[in-house]
Every structure is written in structure tokens, then in C-alpha cells.
Design a protein that fits this description.
Enolase-like, domain 1; 12 helices; 3 domains; Uridine Diphospho-n-acetylenolpyruvylglucosamine Reductase, domain 3; Uridine Diphospho-n-acetylenolpyruvylglucosamine Reductase, domain 2; alpha+beta; three-stranded parallel sheet; globular; binds flavin-adenine dinucleotide
């Protein structure tokens, strides 16, 4: 299939983009890397009259680290996450996650802002943003506002973005000493979207898990902290031999649907196995 006809514009500045979006009366959508949007247009899942290409806007780029916060422009490509020394040092969870996103061509074009705005419940970066306690900077003609990642994701492919608003940047707390990260996913093939995935951030006292923030993807309706599992794993000592301590909590937090060739029960079992693997990797990775 081919997309319906649309007009295309490449604004010269962020302000210009805001003005076009505000004046379009809902007929325009922004396009960044195009890796999700263009596939949807070709399948005629949506038919906007105007595409506003924000992919060259300098105001949406850049990486900076100050006052315990790493700020990444919305146009940060997945490949940049993989290769940035600043990201490796201060937000290593994003490096772990980016390696699992699609294939090289997708990582070269796809952007952080696009992934968060699209809010696919099987995507890696929304779960990481929630687990890390990130803050999104959203902007429009009237100014900017900050929204916690946990409040940004409202439901299946639904976010707090208002018409005409753009994600400008994302602010991540830099990794502190004594904090550990864990990440793993199970997919049918390398590069496929995850069937079950987990991003975890936890404080560690030697091998004992302290405060934990666990966010699943591929088996939830939106990126959110798995409250019951996060509470159940606090105080556990790794390595864990099995998932008995948090199996019931996984059933309370996750509600996967049956899908072709994979029952919901199997997904819950996969989530339990994955959680144990991720928790057992935490102590090895605690920041010095
Ligand atoms: C074959 C294939 C495999 C993939 N595998 C994975 C995978 O394993 N994991 C994964 O997470 N993703 C995967 N993706 C999706 C990919 O990561 C996309 O790059 C990402 O989801 C969207 O980023 P983008 O910049 O391409 O956004 P676009 O496609 O340009 O836009 C996506 C949506 O976000 C909106 N948008 C974009 N930028 C902004 C902004 N700054 N502010 C407000 N709204 C904005 C657009 O209007 C659109 O609605 C895959 C894609 C393909 C084609």
C-alpha cells in the first residue's frame, strides 16, 4: 500500500514548526526519523494532510550534563545513544536499550523523541525513561513545560502531548554511586520488538537490593513503574535461585493478552524468568 497524498514542509526553526502546527488545526503531524510514522502512513493507519519535518531543527539536538542531569535533545538518534561517551558514562541504561532497537538502518534514523512520542508499549526507550525517572521537556508557541515520564504515558500509544506540542528534550538523572541498572528482553529474532522486556534501576547495598524501579515493555499497555514487583524485590539478596518472591507481584502488575503462538500465561512465565536474570545482574553492575 502507499500513503495518501500529503503536503510536506521543512520549517526553518523550532518557532516556525510550532507556528505551522498551531495554524494547521490538527491537520499536520511532525515527522522526525520517520521510522514509525511513515510505515503507519503507508499502511493508511493515519492520513495527515501535512507532514512537518522537524528532523533538521538544531534546537532539538544536543547533549549536555550539568547539576546531576543529562539533557538529550529530542532528535538524538538511537545510534547516537550507542556511541556517546557522555551517555555511556552517565545514563548507561540507554546504551543497553538502544542496542536492541530494530536494526542499524532504523537506529541511524529513529530518534529518542520519536520513540517516546509514539509510545509503543513494546518499545525500549519509554520503559527506560520511566525506570530512570526522566523528565520530558514539551514545548509549543506559548512556552515549555516539564512532565515526568511516568505521567507522560497515558495508555496504548497515548501520551500527554497536546495538539501542536513537541518533545524538545529529555532530562535524565545521572547514575549515582551505589545505583545499579539492569536490562534484558526476549524477542523471537534479533531486532524484533520485544515479547517481554525489562528496564531496572536499583540501589544496592552489596548484594542486597534497596529501592528499585522496574518498568516492563512488550507485556504492558504503557510504560509505567511496576509497583508491586518493585516493592516485592526491595530487600532481596542476589543471586536469586528462583522467582518465588515476586511471581505473584508480576501477575498483579502485568496483564498481557494472548497472541498468535504465545499465551498470556507463557508471557508471565517469561517475565518471571527475565526478572530473575535482570535482578541477578544488578550487583555485578553497581556503580563504584
Ligand atoms: C522494522 C522496524 C523495526 C523496529 N524495531 C523497533 C524496536 O525493536 N524497538 C523500538 O523501540 N522501536 C522500533 N522501531 C521503531 C523505531 O525505533 C522508531 O525510530 C521510533 O519508534 C520512532 O522514532 P522516529 O524518530 O522514527 O519517529 P517518527 O516515525 O518520525 O514519529 C513517530 C511519532 O512520533 C511523533 N514525533 C516524532 N518526534 C516528535 C517530537 N519531537 N515531538 C512530538 N512528536 C514527535 C510523530 O508525529 C509520530 O506520531 C522499529 C521500526 C521499524 C521500521
Amino acid at each position: 500500500m502507499k500513503a495518501r497524498n500529503f503536503r510536506y514542509i521543512r520549517p526553518a526553526s523550532l518557532k516556525h514548526a510550532y507556528r505551522i502546527l498551531a495554524e494547521s488545526g490538527g491537520d499536520a503531524v511532525p515527522v522526525a526519523g520517520g521510522q514509525s510514522l511513515l510505515a503507519g502512513l503507508n499502511m493508511r493507519l493515519s492520513a495527515p494532510k501535512l507532514l512537518v519535518d522537524i528532523g533538521d531543527l538544531k534546537e532539538l539536538t544536543g547533549q549536555s550534563n550539568a547539576d546531576g542531569t543529562m539533557r538529550l535533545g529530542a532528535l538524538t538518534r538511537h545510534a547516537e545513544l550507542l556511541h556517546s561517551e557522555l551517555v555511556k558514562k552517565h545514563v548507561p541504561l540507554l546504551v543497553r536499550a538502544a542496542a536492541h532497537i530494530g536494526h542499524v538502518a532504523i537506529r541511524n534514523r529513529g530518534t529518542l523523541g520519536g520513540s517516546l512520542a509514539y509510545a509503543d508499549p513494546a518499545a525500549e526507550l519509554p520503559a527506560c525513561a520511566v525506570a530512570l525517572g526522566a523528565t520530558l521537556v514539551l514545548g509549543n508557541l506559548k512556552g515549555e513545560r516539564d512532565v515526568e515520564a511516568e505521567d507522560f504515558f497515558k495508555g496504548l500509544f497515548e501520551t500527554d502531548l497536546k495538539p501542536g506540542e513537541l518533545i524538545v528534550a529529555v532530562k535524565f538523572p545521572v547514575m549515582q554511586a551505589g545505583t545499579s541498572i539492569g536490562f534484558a528482553e526476549l524477542a523471537r529474532r534479533q531486532g524484533d520488538f520485544a515479547l517481554v522486556g525489562l528496564a531496572a534501576v536499583a540501589t544496592m547495598q552489596r548484594d542486597r537490593i534497596g529501592n528499585a524501579r522496574l518498568a516492563y515493555f512488550g507485556c504492558v499497555d504503557r510504560a509505567k513503574v511496576a509497583q508491586s514487583v518493585s516493592a516485592a524485590v526491595a530487600g532481596l539478596t542476589t543471586p536469586l535461585a528462583d522467582g518465588a518472591a515476586f511471581e505473584a507481584a508480576i501477575r498483579a502488575d502485568l496483564a498481557p493478552d494472548d497472541m498468535a503462538g504465545l499465551r498470556a500465561d507463557t508471557k508471565l512465565h517469561m517475565a518471571t524468568v527475565l526478572t530473575r536474570r535482570v535482578l541477578n545482574s544488578l550487583s555485578e553492575r553497581a556503580a563504584a
